[in-house]
Amino acid sequence: MENFSISTLDILIVVAYMGLIIWWALRHGKSSDSQSYFLAGRSMPWWVVGLSLFAASISSTTLIGQSGDAYHTGLAVFNYNLAGGILVMVFFALFLLPLYIKSRIFTIPEFLEKRFDSRSRYYFSAICIVGNIFLDAAGALYAAALIIKLVVPEADLHLIIFIFALLCASYTIPGGLSSAINAELIQAVILILGSCMLSFFCFKQGGDYFAELLRRDDLLVSLIRPMDDNATPWLGLIVGMPITGLYFWANNQTLVQRVLSSKTIDEGRRGVLFAGVLTLLTLFIIAIPGVIARHLFPGLEKPDMVYPNMVMQLIPTGLLGIMLAALLSALTSTLSAILNSTSTLFTMDFYAKMKPQASSRQLVMTGKITSCVIIIIAALWAPQIGKFGSLLKYYQEMLSYLAPPIVATFLLGVFTRRVNGRGAFIGLLFGLAIAVLTYTFKDLIFGRLHFLLIVPFLFLGSAAITYGASLCFAPPAEEQLRTTTFRPSDLRQELQRAYRQPWYTNYFNYAALLVVGVMAVYLWLW
Predict the structure, then answer these.
(1) b or e along 254-268 (b: 16 or more beta carbons within 10 Å of the residue's beta carbon)?
(2) In sequence order, what are the beta bridge partners of 44?
(3) pTM for the complete prediction?
(4) Lowest CB count within 10 Å: 137, 295, 299, 523, which one?
(5) Rg of the chain over CA atoms, in angstroms?
(6) Neighbouring-strand partners of residue 233
């Protein structure tokens, strides 16, 4: 591993930043009752929701993984932010978000119970908890350790992970979602400014290289790849990424919890679309710098070291401390979001169901204890992630097997009225069994087929089983469908209401602009 030095000034900046984050978050923490602790009192405006959503989504997978993948395979990795990101966010804001907020849910699995039954809720909540600990929380800790190891190479990896976990837990556990969101406001601003600064130095030294790639129509700067491409075959953009993207943006408690904290449905929608705009900007502050790094730092063997190398070698003294603070912002915001969302899942989906008479004070205390257990388990597992080669490969491949059955159940539940609780639970169980068999015998069943092209088989198989099994049992009761299923008449009423308002308050206009922006990027980097 390549080692770098850091000045005393930069160290002081990083320490001051971490101290500021902890103080600010604790100052704005709320833990008086379960509504305040887990959902920040459902009082957040759109810009807070958007910044918080963006900060929580820029995880180690995005920052470290995407830049590393762009270094090795080019800009095709940004498709996860386009076909599997922004377009999915528009769909989520228009069709799914209103149902979530109208249902007054604390957790996404709770929505499954309202639409189906408690079995689906327990199943999905358990899957989310396991995924949050072993994919997300452990990934954030591992990424933070990689960065600190660059600065202090003699430090023990396990010790770094433990210290970083302690720092995040110090404000997230006492203050709940309100602490996490208020910390994320600062973290989002620092992250955006720091990433823009890194992009400036990156383009300054390697902009000509990127321009030359564009002139040559090099495959590295192409988003649409041939079917035999190892990174993202073009068909995967259509049949694979939207499904994994729906799981990440619309079924992921860590992100959706920020939207559930919004004051109104419209505030939540605007917040999601604002996060979409910020996500579009990551093309210039994460993906393209990763490609330019091929020219600046040729021969890097480990993908996860690309972004840390850019930070340590391109940023001058004084500014390096700010950039390291920005990098740590992405990781601390992700980890605090995961801690709070996972404790919410356990407390509201398991503890509150087992002890329905529990007071708000008991629920909050259970959430705090759960967060402690989660961070310990994640810290113990984090060192194992290095065996997977790349954070992005580790995350996306696991997601491609877990997501399809869950997304199929949600979409069938929202857009059809015939699917019932028994059918949904049977579909989820069979979907999990199919996913495990596929993962175990992938080469035997699908050969060398790209994992994005396996996703639709898992999705359609789970959907067919769910719908077929539902036909064997009675239709769901009407009260289960009232606030949990999409009705075209609701959308027509929303359109009429929205277009009676001034154009600048109409979120449909902003959704359309986002879609146009995505199309423009595809035309530019075809």
Answers:
(1) bbbbbbbbbbebbbb
(2) 262
(3) 0.88
(4) 299
(5) 22
(6) 225
